[in-house]
Structure to design on (670 residues):
């Protein structure tokens, strides 16, 4: 039996799994069951668990899996024992820490930069205005911090995930 | 009938027109911008011509280039779709002057109806009910106050050239009048180069109900069953239905006849839509005429069984419409949900990307008008509409339930979409009862932070699938490691990379 840790939308589930013929044994605090995961096509799966059928799509792009249940799509993180231990260690090592870089959520055009290097920002402060599909979108600070560097200028076109602002 | 036409548009509407042409044996010329080289409308057309760089004003809005392409490719007519050049009177005239046919009303009619103030005057003169207000324009606060004395507050100050809420001010008290007059006029001047404004009574929580009209060049005018488009966000329709839950046969006839009167008064030709606002006592008032094929035309097709695009082509080629007004009746009920590449969780922020997974629903009574395919990247330059999902069923409740079923089947991965938003509306009690107005989204949904529904069961199923998937991957890695264990370097030396994957 192996243990995996699945993080979905802030929740973490520890799941024990073992292969048994063409089925899988699944165990955790609430479940102890045999499931049938049938691969329908590339990324497509049909899961039958406790009599219920789930039509699922899993994408493994960029190492961070995405799963679509039809009701909604989750970004998820799956860790094995070793990765879980490393993550735990890293979390304990990091003290305080800077805000993550502000990245462009979509490709677009930088309309205006609202802050400058050295500025202290609070959660929710506007940082950069990016235009996409003729709509202006104000990107806001995710938390408290100090602006280290502005990586873009007004008028500049940016790709998705381009770093716009870094923090100290 | 035409042998070949050019479609001056992109996305789902270009695809819609191409499909009608295919069925009628008409060849199609698609036009596209650099970023749309692989777009569905290009792939489905018989011929395709590049217009220019992605921005609209260098491609889909470039009337001269489009007319040039039409002439070079031997197209006899141009279908403008909706948006872009569809309601541009100069383009319609230029097309006609180039010896081609514009599939829509004449440029002069577009011009008259595009001027809200002139249109209002035309409707008043032909007895079409309009929202109480000024007959012509107003120039200052004193004139505005005179009308406010007659019709009472609140009022709307609107731009003659208006559209999309620009140059529009709501006035709730007398001390707001002066600044509203100034503000609306200067905003209209800068947005449309035309500062003329007029005043109208502001209707509280109206419904938006519109009538499709179709007129040929032989003096035949027809109206179609109404479409209710009250579910709007930022003046944009998001869900439309036909028939309206509040319109009975008598009201349908009254509104239809008013719409035909409006069409006759303006010398209308081809397909158009007369929009009305309806108050709580079911009085209806002329709002404006959209001089093009509407986004939501499919619901009318579903309840009447008539193909509006084919009728447009018949009219434009000089043909006669052989319809009987009394026979154009709604059968069953149809709903359309506009599926946008927007994130309902982040205030409907555009969410573009490559459609990694794209699977459309099907089955009885389901129609999907889309302009995308799996693997297509939705460009940032244009309207983020992915598709229009339309259902038909024998009655309104069944059409809603069928829509929910279809939304559940619809799978899109690669960008966020408004599918989950639609599900929320279609399950909501007021909507299901037909108790709606143009204020529905802010009043009933209350702009509340939107949460997607997901059961713990679904979450667990997702986690299980991910776990099994990951275990299998880890197993493959381990198998490779075991196969190459100990003398890994020798393996690597003996076989070029990739060879040890047996």
């Amino acid at each position: 039996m192996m243990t995996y840790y699945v993080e979905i939308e802030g929740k973490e589930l520890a799941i024990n799994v073992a292969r048994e013929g063409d089925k899988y044994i699944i165990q955790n605090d609430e479940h102890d069951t045999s499931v049938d995961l049938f691969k329908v096509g590339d990324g497509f799966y049909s899961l039958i668990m406790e009599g219920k059928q789930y039509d699922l799509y899993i994408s493994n792009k960029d190492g961070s899996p995405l799963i679509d249940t039809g009701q909604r799509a989750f970004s998820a993180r799956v860790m094995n024992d070793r990765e879980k231990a490393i993550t735990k260690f890293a979390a304990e090592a990091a003290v305080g820490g800077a805000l993550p870089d502000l990245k462009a959520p979509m490709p677009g055009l930088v309309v205006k930069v609202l802050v400058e290097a050295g500025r202290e920002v609070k959660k929710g402060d506007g940082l950069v205005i990016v235009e996409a599909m003729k709509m202006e979108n104000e990107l806001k600070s995710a938390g408290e911090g100090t602006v280290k560097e502005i990586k873009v200028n007004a008028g500049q076109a940016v790709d998705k995930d381009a770093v716009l602002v870094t923090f100290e | 009938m035409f042998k070949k036409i050019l479609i001056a548009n992109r996305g789902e509407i270009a695809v819609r027109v191409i499909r009608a042409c295919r069925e009628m044996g008409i060849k199609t010329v698609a036009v596209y911008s650099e970023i749309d080289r692989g777009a569905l409308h290009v792939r489905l057309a018989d011929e395709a011509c590049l217009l220019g760089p992605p921005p609209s004003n260098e491609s889909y809005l470039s009337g001269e280039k489009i007319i040039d392409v039409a002439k070079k490719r031997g197209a006899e007519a141009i279908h403008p779709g909706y948006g872009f050049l569809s309601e541009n009177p100069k383009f319609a005239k230029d097309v006609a002057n180039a010896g081609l046919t514009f599939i829509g009303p004449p440029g002069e009619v577009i011009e008259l109806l595009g001027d809200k103030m002139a249109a209002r005057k035309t409707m008043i003169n032909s007895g079409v009910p309009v929202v109480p207000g000024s007959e012509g324009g107003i120039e200052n606060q004193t004139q505005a106050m005179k009308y406010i004395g007659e019709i009472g507050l609140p009022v709307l100050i609107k731009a003659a050239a208006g559209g999309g809420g620009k140059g529009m001010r709501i006035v709730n008290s007398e001390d707001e009048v002066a600044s509203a007059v100034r503000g609306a006029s200067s905003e209209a001047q800068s947005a449309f180069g035309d500062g003329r404004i007029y005043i109208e009574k502001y209707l509280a929580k109206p419904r938006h109900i519109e009538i499709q009209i179709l007129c040929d060049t032989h003096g035949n005018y027809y109206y179609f069953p109404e479409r209710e488009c009250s579910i709007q966000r930022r003046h944009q329709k998001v869900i439309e239905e036909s028939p309206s839950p509040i319109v009975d046969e008598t009201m349908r006839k009254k509104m239809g006849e008013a719409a035909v009167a409006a069409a006759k008064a303006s010398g209308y030709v081809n397909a158009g839509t007369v929009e009305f606002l309806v108050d709580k006592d079911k009085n209806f008032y002329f709002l404006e005429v959209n001089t093009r094929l509407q986004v939501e035309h499919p619901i009318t097709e579903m309840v009447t069984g008539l193909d509006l695009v084919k009728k447009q082509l018949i009219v434009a080629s000089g043909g006669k419409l052989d319809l009987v007004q009394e026979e154009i009746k709604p059968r069953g009920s149809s709903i359309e949900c506009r599926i946008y590449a927007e994130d309902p969780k982040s205030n409907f922020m555009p969410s573009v990307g490559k459609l990694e997974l794209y699977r459309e629903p099907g089955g009885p009574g389901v129609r999907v008008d889309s302009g995308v395919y799996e693997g297509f990247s939705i460009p940032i330059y244009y309207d983020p509409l992915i598709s229009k999902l339309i259902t038909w069923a024998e009655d309104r409740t069944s059409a809603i339930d069928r829509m929910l079923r279809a939304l559940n089947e619809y799978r899109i991965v690669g960008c966020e979409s408004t599918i989950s938003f639609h599900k929320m509306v279609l399950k909501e009690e007021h909507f299901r009862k037909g108790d709606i107005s143009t204020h529905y989204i802010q009043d009933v949904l209350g702009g509340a932070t939107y949460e997607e529904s997901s059961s713990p069961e679904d979450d667990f199923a997702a986690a299980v699938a991910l776990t099994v998937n990951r275990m299998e991957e880890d197993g493959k890695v381990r198998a490779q490691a075991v196969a190459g264990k100990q003398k890994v370097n020798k393996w690597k030396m003996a076989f070029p990379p990739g060879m040890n994957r047996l």
Notes: Residues 105-131+204-331 of chain B form a domain with the D-amino Acid Aminotransferase; Chain A, domain 1 fold (CATH 3.30.470.20). Chain B touches chain A at residues 349-353, 356-357, 380-384, 408-409, 411, 413, 420, 452-455, 457-471, 474 (CB under 8 Å). The longest helix of chain B spans residues 456-483. Residues 486-502 of chain B have pLDDT under 50 and may be disordered.
